[in-house]
């Protein structure tokens, strides 16, 4: 069988795209690497909450089942994604980790997975922006006696040995983890720049509400606002960490200069010894399995315009700043999915839920990647 579309990844980006394909009545399948929808949220640190209220956390066609001004936990997000699949009856194949994606001379894509091979006229890569944990090479210099873990695999304080902890990276994950650990042990936070802290709420409204009303939440990548935001450091939400810093519970440190055994030397000449290190150092997009000529640039990153690949029939979803500030956030998944689906459904022979036909959406303006 040749599907109209395959969607790689059953996270927020993939499921939002699946919603629009289900509405269009085309044949498609969502391939998910894990054994359950929502696992990418379940496996994150236990205290994680979204900094956006529930009213901003819904995907198209289903409200988020929490009070609009509440801040969902990671498990509530995972449960919502599973509910979303059931509610819209989206076809998801679990345990289907992608090993290779190729495109034949006939323009049909073949996806090889641990579960088998699948073919389609269209492929949406929705594996997300948080793909492979990135740990700096200097980590290899740490003594074996020092426990180290990436924030992707950190869950709760008891996972770490008691004693001083260094958290490397002051983004939202690093800030929240440092604040959590400071309740039970000495914590130092290594940061490239001084973090900017924004309140969760301001004048009775969530900060996300304010950014939405000011046109910043969904600021387009190529807009003046988008370009300005990209030049600025991303803010950390909440004031728990700055309060702990002020009280001396968290010590600020600059970047790591070098490591010798269990001693870490910093660029300001100071040093410290730690029982554990948490690397909150972000993620690296990994597309080694994408074996389609011209799909990636020299740095092995996607060549695309707003998610539409230069390769006909290939699309991306959930990339940072793909179309807007919100592209990699749950609140932006629906907007980007609708845009991608409109292009994806143009002028292609498609197997439908009934008889094959030609889908033509003449009202959609031409965009790169459309056939």
Automatic annotation (TrEMBL):
UniProt cross-references to InterPro entries, sorted A to Z: Auxin_biosynth/cation_transpt (IPR050982), FAD/NAD-bd_sf (IPR036188)
Protein's UniProt keywords contain Cytoplasm: no
Lineage: Bacteria, Pseudomonadati, Bacteroidota, Cytophagia, Cytophagales
Signal peptide per UniProt: none
UniProt cross-references to Gene3D superfamilies, sorted A to Z: FAD/NAD(P)-binding domain
Molecular functions per Gene Ontology: flavin adenine dinucleotide binding; monooxygenase activity
SUPFAM superfamilies: FAD/NAD(P)-binding domain
Record Pfam families: Pyr_redox_3
PANTHER family: FLAVIN-BINDING MONOOXYGENASE-LIKE PROTEIN (AFU_ORTHOLOGUE AFUA_4G09220) (PTHR43539), FLAVIN-CONTAINING MONOOXYGENASE (PTHR43539:SF78)
Keyword Oxidoreductase: yes
Name listed for the protein in its UniProt record: FAD-dependent pyridine nucleotide-disulphide oxidoreductase
Alphabetic keyword roster: Oxidoreductase
């Amino acid at each position: 069988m040749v599907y109209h579309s395959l969607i790689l990844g059953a996270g927020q980006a993939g499921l939002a795209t699946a919603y629009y394909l289900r509405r269009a009545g085309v044949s498609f399948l969502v391939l998910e690497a894990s054994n359950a929808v929502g696992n990418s949220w379940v496996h994150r640190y236990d205290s994680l909450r979204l900094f956006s209220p529930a009213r901003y956390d819904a995907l198209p066609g289903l409200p988020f089942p929490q009070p609009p001004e509440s801040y969902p936990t990671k498990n509530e997000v995972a449960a919502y994604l599973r509910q979303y699949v059931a509610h819209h009856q989206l076809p998801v194949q679990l345990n289907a980790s992608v090993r290779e994606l190729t495109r034949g001379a006939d323009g049909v894509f073949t996806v090889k997975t641990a579960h088998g091979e699948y073919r389609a006229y269209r492929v949406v890569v929705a594996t997300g922006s948080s793909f492979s944990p990135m740990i700096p090479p200097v980590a290899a210099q740490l003594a074996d006696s020092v426990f180290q873990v990436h924030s992707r695999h950190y869950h709760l304080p008891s996972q770490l040995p008691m004693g001083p902890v260094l958290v490397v990276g002051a983004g939202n994950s690093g800030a929240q983890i440092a604040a959590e650990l400071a309740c039970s042990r000495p914590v130092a936070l290594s940061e490239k720049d001084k973090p900017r802290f924004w309140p969760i709420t301001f004048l009775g409204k969530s900060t996300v509400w304010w950014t939405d009303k000011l046109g910043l939440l969904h600021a387009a990548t190529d807009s003046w606002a988008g370009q300005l935001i990209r030049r600025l450091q991303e803010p950390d939400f909440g004031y728990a960490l700055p309060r702990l810093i002020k009280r001396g519970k968290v010590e600020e440190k600059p970047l790591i200069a070098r490591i010798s055994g269990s001693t870490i030397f910093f660029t300001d000449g100071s040093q410290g010894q730690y029982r554990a290190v948490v690397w909150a150092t972000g993620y690296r997009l990994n597309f080694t399995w994408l074996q389609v000529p011209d799909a990636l640039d020299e740095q092995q990153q996607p060549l695309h315009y707003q998610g539409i690949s230069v390769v006909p029939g290939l699309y991306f979803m959930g990339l940072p700043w793909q179309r807007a500030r919100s592209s990699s956030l749950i609140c932006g998944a629906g907007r980007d999915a609708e845009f991608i689906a409109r292009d994806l459904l143009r002028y292609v022979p498609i197997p439908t839920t009934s008889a094959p036909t030609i889908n033509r959406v003449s009202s959609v303006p031409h965009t790169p990647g459309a056939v």
